[in-house]
């Protein structure tokens, strides 16, 4: 599958930029990354296409790299225009570039602009690809049979709510909903008491497909644009009461947070790794299997969750890391998600978003949600300042981070995906 982006000179570890901050070893956005997003200089202004380079944003239209500010149009163009844009940006932003002086006029500090949701999201589907998460959660409710019989055969997913997906930094209001305590005679309605985060990645669709025309798994790579961090906030008590028989509804429709910069599949090429099922597990059905996907369908991406409480913030105490995991442990590849989603002939469109589902690690301390880390609320976490948490409290700030590292390669990152919990709206 040639669509599994090739490593080329834009990934060379020795490349440096005339933008000094891009050469900092700690930056998420060196010249080898060049993620894409949308920004505006003031509330109410038009959104512009940008590329992140160090701590700066390059305005792509003003600098002459595109003739529009429509991310969805760029996504619809497919692989070739995106590769051409990446190569042009890499050449122009390198140290010694003849365009350095001219481009500097179109660079603005990220701290001075508003970063938004990267594109117009028409549809959003959340999958359940985290085997360790599925097992951990299953054990809480079905200790003897944590995984349902279909889990290892079909990429489980549900259609979510696109309108409430928000950009990193947007406050998240604690939702109200209906829930039922185990020994209560009737359900109650009120602010959720079991608010949780979910550590996920989001995959944006690039070029779509016509209604009625499935995308073969061998061609699916050409329909992926790039990845973001994704926090699928969840009201666990509402979820427990409503999810049967049709799955998530109000427990997840109040907010989901995305990081603003889309790390393209081309930037991720050096961090592709082989995909393999655990020994003894069934092989995917033929429509979900391709040799190239087995060879390079997984991604080596380190994922982290950080928490800062209101008390920590008031005391000047930095956030503490709660866990880390790796996306290479996902039970299904992104190509398999595309192939399965379109197997019925469902038409994907540029800017559609796939959530990967919570990405937990194999050990108990690597849960991608508080539901797992607190064992369903039975084992509170003790934070460095002595506070405890089973679920999120008002004022808590959750930050997701991710990075890719490999020998001989420049480290790249995803930026931050952050949200702070606000009190529930007044109501009955």
Could you please describe the fold and organization of this structure?
The protein is of the alpha+beta class and 428 residues long. It has two domains: 9-115, SH3 type barrels, CATH 2.30.30.230; 124-422, Fumarylacetoacetase-like, C-terminal domain (Fumarylacetoacetate hydrolase, domain 2), CATH 3.90.850. It has helices spanning 71-76, 79-93, 100-104, 131-141, 236-242, 291-296, 310-314, 334-341, 370-373, and strands spanning 36-40, 48-53, 56-59, 107-109, 114-115, 124-127, 157-159, 165-167, 172-173, 176-179, 188-191, 195-196, 199-205, 224-231, 234-235, 256-258, 263-264, 272-273, 298-299, 302-308, 320-326, 353-355, 381-382, 388-389, 397-404, 412-422. The strands form seven sheets. Strands 6, 7, 8, 13, 14, 16, 17 and 22 form an eight-stranded mixed beta sheet that branches. The protein has a five-stranded antiparallel beta sheet with strand order 4-3-2-1-5, with no helix packed on it. The chain has a five-stranded mixed beta sheet with strand order 9-26-25-20-21. A hairpin with an 8-residue loop joins strand 10 (176-179) and strand 11. The termini are far apart. The model has no long low-confidence stretch (mean pLDDT 96).
């Amino acid at each position: 599958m040639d669509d599994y982006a090739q490593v080329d000179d834009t990934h060379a570890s020795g490349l440096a930029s005339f933008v000094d901050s891009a050469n900092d070893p700690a930056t998420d956005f060196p010249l080898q990354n060049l993620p894409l997003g949308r920004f505006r200089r003031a509330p109410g202004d038009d959104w512009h296409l940008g590329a992140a380079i160090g701590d700066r944003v390059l305005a792509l239209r003003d600098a002459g790299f595109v003739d529009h500010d429509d991310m969805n149009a760029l996504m619809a163009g497919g692989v070739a225009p995106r590769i051409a844009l990446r190569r042009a940006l890499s050449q122009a932003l390198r140290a010694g570039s003849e365009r350095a002086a001219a481009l500097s006029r179109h660079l603005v500090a990220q701290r001075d602009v508003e970063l938004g949701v990267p594109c117009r999201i028409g549809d959003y589907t959340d999958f359940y690809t985290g085997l360790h998460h599925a097992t951990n959660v299953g054990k809480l409710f079905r200790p003897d049979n944590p995984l349902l019989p279909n889990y290892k055969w079909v990429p489980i997913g549900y259609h979510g709510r696109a309108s409430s997906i928000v950009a990193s930094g947007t406050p998240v209001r604690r939702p109200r909903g209906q829930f039922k305590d185990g020994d209560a005679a009737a359900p109650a309605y009120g602010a959720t008491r079991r608010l949780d985060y979910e550590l996920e990645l989001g995959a944006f669709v690039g070029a779509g497909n016509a209604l009625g025309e499935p995308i073969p798994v061998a061609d699916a790579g050409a329909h992926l644009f790039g990845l973001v961090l994704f926090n699928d906030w969840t009201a666990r008590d509402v979820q427990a009461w409503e999810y049967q028989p049709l799955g998530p509804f109000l427990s997840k429709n109040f907010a989901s947070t995305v990081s603003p910069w889309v790390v393209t599949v081309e930037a991720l090429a050096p961090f592709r790794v082989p995909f393999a099922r655990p020994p003894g597990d069934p092989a995917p059905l033929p429509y979900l299997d391709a040799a190239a996907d087995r060879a390079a369908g997984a991604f080596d991406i380190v994922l982290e969750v950080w928490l800062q409480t209101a008390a920590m913030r008031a005391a000047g105490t930095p956030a503490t890391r709660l866990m880390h995991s790796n996306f290479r442990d996902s039970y299904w590849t992104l190509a398999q998600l595309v192939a399965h989603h379109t197997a019925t002939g469902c038409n994907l469109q540029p800017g559609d978003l796939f959530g990967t589902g919570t990405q937990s690690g194999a050990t108990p301390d690597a849960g991608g949600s508080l539901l797992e880390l607190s064992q369903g609320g039975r084992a509170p976490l003790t934070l460095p300042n002595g506070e405890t948490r089973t679920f999120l409290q008002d004022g808590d700030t959750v930050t997701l981070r991710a990075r890719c590292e490999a020998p001989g390669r420049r480290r790249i990152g995803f930026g931050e995906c952050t949200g702070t919990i606000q009190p529930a709206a007044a109501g009955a």
